[in-house]
Design brief:
Number of domains: 1
Order of helices and strands: HHH
Distance between the termini: 168 Å
Number of helices: 3
Shape: elongated
Length: about 180
Amino acid sequence: MKNITDSFLCLGYWPFAGSFGFNTDILATNPINLSVVLGVLVFFGKGVLSDLLDNRKQRILRTIRNSEELREGAIEQLERAQARLRKVETEADRFRVNGYSEIEQEKLNLINSIDTTLEQLDNYKNEAIHFEQQRVINQVRQRVLQQALQGALGTLNSCLNNELHLRTVNANIGMFGAMKEKK
């Protein structure tokens, strides 16, 4: 086996010409292999890498354009919103000036309406009181009449006997019969 330092330190050692074989010296063969691989990658990968970079560049430019358009749209919306704000502020000032007189007018209207409502409620109350008085008076009249009738019936029942009762009934029947014949 060869010593690794032989190929670096002893420049005079060369393998025989005309022999074919694998070089197992890793340090000697790696730079050659790496340069070949890098050369192939640069040659064939240059187009792929430039396509990837171009696509990325196009996406970035598109994003920048979209951002600019959105910024311009936002500026327009801000200007419209500021104009609307100024308009609303002027209307608010106008309403504030006119509002005080309208509020006073509405207050007077409300007071008048409340006065009218109170008068109506007072009239309804008086009518209800009058109705209740009439109802109570009628109930008292009915009770007095009922008590008077009960007293009269009691007096009649205590004073009437069977004979007097029969004579009264016969007299009444006679009166009804006479009235019926007149018709």
